[in-house]
């Protein structure tokens, strides 16, 4: 069981079938999600309408993806896992791959190349080096501090600004910054982070970016669990070829993008995404609320509660009737009433489809994976909905219980006293806050007092219900707590 080519030495390595397209996009954060999503749409757009939109993938830190993809000329298999079978597809839109920490200059040069018109990002929430509660650049972030005094950056904001600076100096227009992360108003957010950084470096550069740059907001959706070593071995056994980096994904996909790309390039500003099924709209806000609140909000809720109830995957969790009832209840009573639906979308139909997607047992999406980085995810997934419900005097016991489950989760010990491997950029801080607040009556307010996550006004209003949900979970366990809510 391994991703090592050595164990598959008897098999031929996956190889490119078609000519390599010319590069037009640099993508920061070439993980499983973008390879199963954006890279597939872009390949379809090029196949149908042409254009040079080959993708130069960049891993900011780890050389792993490069080590897996480079020996197979950057091509890989996308495995679509439906409830009743799978479809294989070889993706060929990635044309090169780089590791930023090994050669930051090469990454800046690729981003500053005249042919690069888009820099897209899937660097996860924490990659933006911002303060999740305010959406502003975190100037105390160690990588941001380092990047402000070095021309060879470590952080994504550092790369964006240094590459834009180089384009300006070369007399080139900026590239469009296309964020594909699950953040609220992601386009506006990345714009304000880039401008905050640029202003600290050179106010004139900041003005140039502000007037000439474009940062369209997007809504991205496809469930893509991390590829496991056994997935690689299974695929090799079935196909008789070795692919070190396949991606596994659900059939569903949806990409909504604000059609606001750098105007200097005219029709050459972006691939013909519409032919591939991308929805190009004027404003993504309603789609974003629908997706972040309905999908990601319940995903995180199910992840913390499901994990504490002993469930390994989301599919296992929602096939437990207690959880199915719970999730339907929060959609109906707490999430759907909190925002306005996109035009023509029936949110109850969307919720029913989500439940079927979550229940797809071919997708082994671990609760532990989704539970990661909660400090960066809670505001846009759960807290905004909670705030809107409180403003409308609507109770939201389900989301309150999910938040209490997160508090238990980040304590690092589950309800049976077993250790939890908590992965979160704020893990140490959370542990300290909990250690200094031994009693429950101190713990909940202490956690709610973390300003990077919780707005003070909301925090002040939920101390009591969260404390009571926390003690019910500790005393009665997850299942009895959810049953009592029904
Ligand atoms: C998940 C998302 O890992 C997580 O936190 O909630 O990655 C989710 O699978 C995608 O946003 C689906 O589009």
UniProtKB/TrEMBL annotation:
> Pfam family of this protein, just one?
Mannitol_dh
Specify the superkingdom. Answer: Bacteria
Q: This chain belongs to which protein, by name?
A: Mannitol dehydrogenase
Keywords of this protein's UniProt record, alphabetized?
A: Oxidoreductase
- Cite the Mannitol dehydrogenase N-terminal domain residue spans from the record: 24-261
Q: Which Gene3D superfamilies match?
A: N-(1-d-carboxylethyl)-l-norvaline Dehydrogenase, domain 2, NAD(P)-binding Rossmann-like Domain
Give GO MF terms, alphabetically. oxidoreductase activity, acting on the CH-OH group of donors, NAD or NADP as acceptor
List the source organism.
Answer: Roseibium aquae
The gene is uxuB
Per UniProt, residues of the Mannitol dehydrogenase C-terminal domain are: 283-470
């Amino acid at each position: 069981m391994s991703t090592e080519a050595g164990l598959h030495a008897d098999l031929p390595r996956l190889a490119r079938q078609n000519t390599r397209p010319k590069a037009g996009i640099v993508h920061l954060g070439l993980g499983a999600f973008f390879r199963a999503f954006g890279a597939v749409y872009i390949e379809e757009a090029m196949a149908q309408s042409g254009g040079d939109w080959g993708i130069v993938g960049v891993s900011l830190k780890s050389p792993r993806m490069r080590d897996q993809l480079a020996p197979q000329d950057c091509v890989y298999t996308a495995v679509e896992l439906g409830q009743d079978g799978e479809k294989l597809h070889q993706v060929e839109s990635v044309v090169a791959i780089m590791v930023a920490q090994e050669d930051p200059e090469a990454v800046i040069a690729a981003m500053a190349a005249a042919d690069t018109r888009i820099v897209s990002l899937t660097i996860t929430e924490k990659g933006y080096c911002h303060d999740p509660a305010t959406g502003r650049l975190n100037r105390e972030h160690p990588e941001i501090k380092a990047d402000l005094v070095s021309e060879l950056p470590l952080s994504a904001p550092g790369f964006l600004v240094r590459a834009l600076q180089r384009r300006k100096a070369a007399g080139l227009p900026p590239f469009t910054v296309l964020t594909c992360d699950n953040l609220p108003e992601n386009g506006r957010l990345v714009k304000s982070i880039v401008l905050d950084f640029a202003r600290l470096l050179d106010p004139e550069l900041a003005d140039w970016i502000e007037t000439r740059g474009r940062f369209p907001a997007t809504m991205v959706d496809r469930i893509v669990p991390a590829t496991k070593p056994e997935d690689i071995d299974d695929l090799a056994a079935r196909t008789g070829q070795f692919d070190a980096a396949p991606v596994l994904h659900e059939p569903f996909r949806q990409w909504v993008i604000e059609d606001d790309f750098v105007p200097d390039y005219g029709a050459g500003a972006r691939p013909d995404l519409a032919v591939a099924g991308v929805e190009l709209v004027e404003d993504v806000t309603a789609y974003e609320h629908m997706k972040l609140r309905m999908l990601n909000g319940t995903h995180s809720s199910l992840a913390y509660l499901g994990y504490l109830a002993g469930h390994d995957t989301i599919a296992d969790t929602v096939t437990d009737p207690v959880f199915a009832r719970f999730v339907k209840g929060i959609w109906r009573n707490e999430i759907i009433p909190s925002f306005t639906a996109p035009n023509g979308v029936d949110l109850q139909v969307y919720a029913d489809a989500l439940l079927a997607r979550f229940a797809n047992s071919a997708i082994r999406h671990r609760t532990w994976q989704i539970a990661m980085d909660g400090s960066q995810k809670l505001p846009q997934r759960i807290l905004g909905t909670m705030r809107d419900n409180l403003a409308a005097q609507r109770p939201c016991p389900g989301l309150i219980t999910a938040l209490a489950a997160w508090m238990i989760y980040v304590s690092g010990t589950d309800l049976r006293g077993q250790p939890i491997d908590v992965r979160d950029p704020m893990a140490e801080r959370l542990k300290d806050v909990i250690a200094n607040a031994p009693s429950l009556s101190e713990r909940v307010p202490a956690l709610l007092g973390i300003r990077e996550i919780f707005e003070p006004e909301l925090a002040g209003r939920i101390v009591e219900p969260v404390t009571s949900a926390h003690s019910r979970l500790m005393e009665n366990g997850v299942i009895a707590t959810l049953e009592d809510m029904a």
